[in-house]
Amino acid sequence: MSDLMPTLNGVDEIETKKFALPVDAENKATVFPLVSVAKPHMRAFHLCWIQFFSCFLSTFAAPPLLPIIRDNLNLTQNDIGNAGVGSVSGAIFARVLMGTACDLFGPRLASATLTLLTAPAVYLSAVADSAPGFFAMRFFTGFALATFVSTQYWMSSMFSPTVVGLANGQSAGWGNLGGGVAQLVMPLVYTAILKTGATNFVAWRIAFFIPALFQMSSAFAVMLLGQDLPDGNFHQLQKSGNMHKDNAKKVLYHGISNYRSWITALGYGFCFGVELAVNNIVAYYFYDRFNLNLNLSGIVAATFGMVNLFSRPIGGGLSDFMAKKYGMRGRLWSWWIVQTISGVLCIALGLIDTLAASIAVMIIFSLFVQAAEGLTFGVVPFVSRRSLGVVSGMTGAGGNVGAVLTQVIFFRGSQFTTERGITYMGVMIIACSLGIVSIYFPQWGGVFCSPKANFTEEDYYLKEWDAEEQKRGLHDVSMKFAGSCRNERSTKGKSVTKEAEMSAPDGV
């Protein structure tokens, strides 16, 4: 049998003393024990979600305090809308750059550096004294959201294709939870500071020191305790000659020239982008429309983000489950259906005018839109092996582009009421989700199309390496990954593979 030929279940599991968990041919863990802190796989998981959580908390620390900040800085509705756009627009290019940085320098160094560089913006929130200052604070703090890309890259580097959807969903979901926790915690921190004798307009400023300290601490933890890959850190492996330092231009080219990267970016724009937009408006929406007080509107708004505790992991787990049953086509089917349903629920949320029903629909909507995010990154790791970081960065940036578009079109100024904007946003979710139908992998098929005959995983991933690179053996890591991806075939394709393996003579 060829060295690249997988075992009957599609993954070469290798039990070694080197790792606490069972691993595949790339030393990626083939299981995902959530409560474990085993080095290096599960330690990386816990470090990356905590860091991303801290960045999310900092970015969305302002919205739950907007009624107070608005009065202090004399902000207009346009000022608030512009600041909301700023909070998610800065990370658009930062996410693309983060993806490239992960491909070249590793997720540990790339993410910790960005987290430290953006922490001062959170501290400086305390001295904002005008609408432009408030905009600048939210804009530069929002760059930290690019750590999402390093989170997904890191998990895709640590976990096998059989569990990568769950690992990506769990890490991003728990990270996104920071947005919901901010809605809940920041009003409580503000109230606690008021009780020490501070005035309203001083208390909100002091409150920002809590997320800033947390963000800095998480960056140092990642830098000191994390590890890029199962076998070590990028710099260490490149220096020892065990890892090839890739060509930045080629990595970027293969990422942006793959049309699937653009479709995943579009789809993610109208699930994660929608979540970001809702995080910016949900607290003051309930505050203004249903006359709730600051703490109560914060609690209600927090439920939208808190659903991330299980919703995005459910999406990632569903992606892996569907892949076991129907291969890649199952991942695509479930992503399209779930995201379309989220659009329908978004329309309903904007049309309902009673408090109890709005809260109920908002929670169900949150479940589906966040599950769609997990389903997106059940597909992303398979788009490109060589340019994984670039594809992850483009997809993540698409989320921020979607947030900017929805914020500008529906929630900036007085063109639409907030509830009307929510309804129209639901229509846009349904329309843009149609792009998922166009994703086609010749070795696995698409939503409506079957795979191309006699086209293998090796054929697909080998296209990213030219003849000279193949002669030098630089494509070997992609071929190992291709062998681990046999499970993305449909049930029929898997059975054909098994029959071929059983009938093939030794040495073939």
TrEMBL record:
Subcellular location: Endomembrane system
Membrane-crossing segments per the record: 44-68, 80-97, 109-128, 135-154, 174-194, 206-226, 262-287, 332-352, 359-383, 389-410, 422-441
Chief localisation class: membrane
Region (Disordered): 485-508
One GO cellular component, as annotated: membrane
Protein's UniProt keywords contain Chloroplast: no
Residue ranges with Basic and acidic residues bias: 486-501
GO terms, molecular function: nitrate transmembrane transporter activity
Membrane-topology annotation of the record: Multi-pass membrane protein
Keywords, alphabetical: Membrane, Nitrate assimilation, Transmembrane, Transmembrane helix
Family annotation (InterPro entries): MFS, MFS_dom, MFS_trans_sf, NO3_transporter
Ranges for domain Major facilitator superfamily (MFS) profile: 44-445
GO biological process, one term: nitrate assimilation
One Pfam family this sequence matches: MFS_1
UniProt similarity note: Belongs to the major facilitator superfamily. Nitrate/nitrite porter (TC 2.A.1.8) family.
Name by which UniProt lists this protein: Major facilitator superfamily (MFS) profile domain-containing protein
Organism: Chenopodium quinoa
